[in-house]
Write a sequence for this structure.
């Protein structure tokens, strides 16, 4: 198993199953002791804001706020710089523990040794 898992989620409420899968895999990996870095891009960018995860609903899926909290507690969550800018989201707007970073940081993380990268 990879020592580090980098997950980029591009989907939000526009593709709820894909979005939920990304958060679920990230949360399960954190619970399993894997070093997890979850990247919010595209429509998932909105989940970096307080209260937005609570608006997400998908039958038979774990509540997104619970998944988000577990990932924040044991992993890292990053909001894409360009995605944030397009939505006029700044560092003062995001949940505590969420950082904003760009493609250079994503590439560096994804190409690190013993790293598996997934895109949803």
């Amino acid at each position: 198993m990879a020592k580090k898992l980098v997950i980029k989620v591009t989907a939000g409420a526009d593709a709820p199953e894909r979005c939920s899968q990304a958060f679920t895999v990230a949360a399960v990996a954190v619970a399993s002791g894997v070093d997890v870095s979850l990247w919010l891009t595209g429509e998932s960018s909105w989940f970096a804001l307080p209260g937005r995860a609570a608006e997400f609903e998908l039958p038979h899926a774990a509540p997104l706020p619970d998944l988000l909290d577990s990932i924040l507690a044991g992993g890292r969550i990053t909001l894409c710089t360009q995605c944030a800018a397009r939505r006029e989201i700044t560092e003062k707007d995001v949940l505590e523990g969420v950082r904003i970073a760009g493609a250079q940081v994503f590439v560096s993380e994804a190409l690190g040794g013993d790293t598996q990268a997934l895109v949803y």
Notes: The longest strand covers residues 4-9.
